[in-house]
Amino acid sequence: MSLDRRQFLSSVAVPGLAQRERPNIVLLMTDQQAGAAVSANGNRYLHTPAMDSLAAGGVSFTESYTTYPVCSPARSSWFTSRMPHETGVRVNGQPIAAGIPTMGEIFRAQGYHTVYGGKWHLPKSFGGVTGFEELIGGSSLGAEMDEPLATSCVQFLRKQPKQPFLLVASFMNPHDVCSWIRAHPGSRSYADVTKYPPAPANMAVDPEEPEHLRHHRYGGIDLMSQGVGIAAEWKRDDWRFYLHDYYRMAEDVDRQIGRVLSALRLAGLAGNTFVLLTSDHGEGMGAHRWVQKAAFWEETAKVPMIAAGWGVRRHGVVDTHTLVSGLDILPTVCDYAGVPPPEIVRGRTLRPALEGAGLDRTFVVSEVRYGDAAHEGRMVRTARYKYVVYNGGRNPEQLFDLELDPGEILNLARASDAAPILQRHRQLLAGWIRETRDDFRFPV
Q1: What is the pLDDT, as a whole number, of residue 20?
Q2: What is the pLDDT of residue 143?
Q3: Predicted local confidence at residue 14, as pLDDT
Q4: Which residues are CB-neighbours of 221 under 8 A, at least 6 positions away?
Q5: Which string of DSSP letters, residue by residue, matches 341-365?
Q6: How far is Cα 60 from Cα 38, in angstroms, rounded to an integer?
Q7: I want to staple 103 with a disulfide (CB 3.0 to 4.6 A). Which of 79, 253, 325, 334 is the partner?
Q8: For the chain, what is the mean pLDDT?
Q9: Which residues fall within 8 angstroms of residue 104, CB to CB, at 6 or more apart?
Q10: Which alpha helices (H) appear in 270-344, and where do they start and end?
Q11: What is the reported pTM?
């Protein structure tokens, strides 16, 4: 029989456990940062020295995926290791369902001093930012939130806090690109575009893309022939301008993260602290002429995942093979902290991969909803392929060979020679749906 949230928290509260030698945990969260928007991962059009320093001291996973390419649902998975359809957070602004243990509560029950700063975006989850006894920093937009949040984190670390502690610093940028996009609705001219990154090579939009994807792209109306939709008036140089400014926002948040990491070192705490950095979802970056999130393209679904510090045995590694999910955060930090995880977790601890043993995983899953249950999609990523299926509309399936087609240009879902691969991915998703009691319905 499954334990409910109250029973679980009571069962793991062990008196005296806080006296054991256990690491501090620092989680650094950004918002809307694509996995490619880290210079340590090979992007030469921006410079993120703080994130690069983490990668140099640990492991950067390039095959890291969000559970849902929208803020609140993805965040609900961070703190519970459950899929958004399980947490009840299907769109932005919904609370985590009652009865699911959350990270703050779990660590607090084990004697950790739990501290949270910045964006939460899961309102009314049991009354607030659940389980965190100390709240620091935070405001609204990245330009207003991130510097004060970093300052609050620096002050917290300087005062030699009670150990062990769990500190979550949830920064806003580069999410400010959303406001930037709304402020640039049309095309413009530029005096000098040489300083801008090149436009993406995979800008073409598939005229046969899934109807549900087009529904979101064009606000529910098929207006492809009229050239409308998000950023539809932009020319190639507009896309270059947008990428340039998006990268500057990533650099802005990197500077604030650098301040936190520096304070951790100066306080003499770095040697006893496990640090993990990630983001809730990516950004379209112009691939398939897509901006913002809510799609399963590599640019929107992939996020940074970097771990370093206490207990991490691999250093300076860019791991391009291990499949990683936002579901893995809670079991990973529980493992390093010696904290029992909840009875039900959908993720895996990344400790084996961080110690060089590898992670035995064949696929990860993501999901999305476009406004209502009639417009939902699911994604399965395996070692070589990505399978996407929506629960209705024309052309509901996509299958991409990411080894030969990393830009996701050629949809193989209707190719006869790819039928066995398609069927295998359907079966993987069907098994996951049964395991997680998902109510998603295949249209095929």
Answers
A1: 52
A2: 65
A3: 40
A4: none
A5: PPS---S---HHHHTTS-----EEE
A6: 10
A7: 79
A8: 89
A9: 79, 114, 116, 129, 130, 131, 132, 166, 168
A10: 298-301, 329-337
A11: 0.91
d(CA 398, CA 400): 7
CA proximity to 301, closest of 367, 236, 244, 257? 367
DSSP string, 224-264: GGGT-STTTT--HHHHHHHHHHHHHHHHHHHHHHHHHHHHH
Instruction: Residue 398: count other Cβ atoms within 10 Å of its Cβ.
Output: 26
Q: Measured in whole angstroms, how far is the alpha carbon of residue 108 from the centre of its chain?
A: 24
Phi–psi pair at 118, nearest 5 degrees: 100, -150
Are 304 and 51 within 8 A, CB to CB?
yes
Note whether 238 and 184 are within 8 A (CB).
yes
Token pair 């629960």 is at which residue? Answer: 391
Predicted confidence (pLDDT) per residue in 99-112, tens digit:
899 999 999 999 99
- Give the 3-state secondary structure of residue 367: strand
Output the CA–CA distances (angstroms, integers) from residue 335 to 8, 22, 340, 423, in the order listed. 17, 11, 8, 35
CATH number for the domain whose boundaries are 5-179+234-362: 3.40.720.10
Exposed (0-12), middle (13-18) or buried (19+): which is 123, by Cβ within 10 Å? middle
Residue spans per domain, the chain:
5-179+234-362
Kindly report the length of the chain: 444
* CB 294 within 8 Å of CB 70: yes
8 A C-beta contact, residue 74 and residue 329: no
* Whole-number pLDDT of residue 19: 41
Q: Edge-to-edge strand order for the sheet containing 363-369?
A: 363-369, 376-382, 385-390, 397-401
- At residue 123, the pLDDT reads 65
Tell me the C-alpha to C-alpha distance, in Å, between residue 101 and each of 108, 149, 202, 238.
11, 26, 41, 45
Q: What percent of the chain has pLDDT over 90?
A: 75
Computed from CA positions of residues 358, 65, 76, 370, in that sequence, does the dihedral angle turn out positive or negative? negative
Residues of the chain falling short of pLDDT 50:
1-3, 7-19, 125-127, 221-228
**Structure confidence by residue, pLDDT tens digits, 217-233:** 876 543 333 333 668 78
Q: What is the DSSP letter of 142?
A: H
A 10 A CB-CB count for 159 gives 9
Cα 368 from Cα 70, distance rounded (Å): 8
Structure tokens at 135: 């709240």
